[in-house]
Amino acid sequence: MLIFSKKADLKAHLQHHIQAGTTIGFVPTMGALHSGHLSLMQQSVAQNGITVVSIFVNPTQFNNPEDLEKYPRTLEADAEKIQGLNRDIIIFAPTVDDMYEGHTISQHYNFDGLENQMEGAHRPGHFDGVGTVVKKLFEIVQPTRAYFGEKDFQQLQIVKKLVEKENMPIQIIGCPISREESGLAMSSRNERLSAEERHGAAFIYQVLQEARTRFAQESIDSVKSYVAQEFKAHPEFVPEYFEIADEDTLIPATLKENRKYRAFIAVFLGNVRLIDNISLN
Ligand code: AMP
Fold this sequence. Notes:
Blueprint: E1 3-4, H1 7-19, E2 24-29, H2 35-47, E3 50-55, H3 65-70, H4 75-85, E4 90-92, H5 96-100, H6 118-122, H7 126-141, E5 145-149, H8 153-165, E6 171-175, H9 195-200, H10 202-215, H11 220-232, E7 237-246, E8 261-269, E9 272-279
Parallel strand pairs: 1-4, 2-3, 2-5, 3-4, 5-6
Antiparallel strand pairs: 7-8, 8-9
The protein binds adenosine monophosphate.
């Protein structure tokens, strides 16, 4: 299995594939891989001649220094998981210096307002960091298709906007959320929960499912007050936001129209911040 730590080496290796017209599938990750990540890779392997997976904890997308510091880094175990899935997957695990060449700063992006909602509002600079690293990675890998999880639905929409605005000829493919048996959305951050917290965190998805059921009959206001009440009754969870938003614009909705809606939540359990979302119609 090939692991590259320098972008120049990866580019040189990919050159003959690009010249031969081989399709390149790309799965960007921050490592600490779980089955959610692996499902993205599986889809890429099925649809492309070669697959590249990047493992890079991108400093510019962290607005909280403690979160960046505590983010798990498990390259060896990650490489083993990837190898177990498919030995031909190419890993790109660069250093911060190789990616940023001494200038660890973000470019500023306008994603037509997508960046101002929810995660953007609560994590200043986050999507500038995401845009910056994804653009760099796309320029290095030059993928035919790139795979992103609906777990980070806002990020998925922003990456679609990025390639549209930058005229990059890359197909962005959204992949369904992988969940633990309890319903908790898989996340590298789940590792930081105690066993008891991890078990209890299934509550988040239960509330989302009940919100979906209620959304079919009730007003948006009424669904939101149901959710607020549930969290009041479970004070170990501290919600940062719960929104029902238009899937395309991500603008929070107040009245139901003939559009696609999704419920989005960010909630703290202890000092771990968890996000999830669910399609409502
Ligand atoms: P991360 O390593 O957290 O940056 O995630 C890398 C990619 O995997 C992103 O496109 C995520 O949306 C996706 N991902 C993370 N967790 C899940 C999950 N539970 N289900 C599906 N995709 C996921």
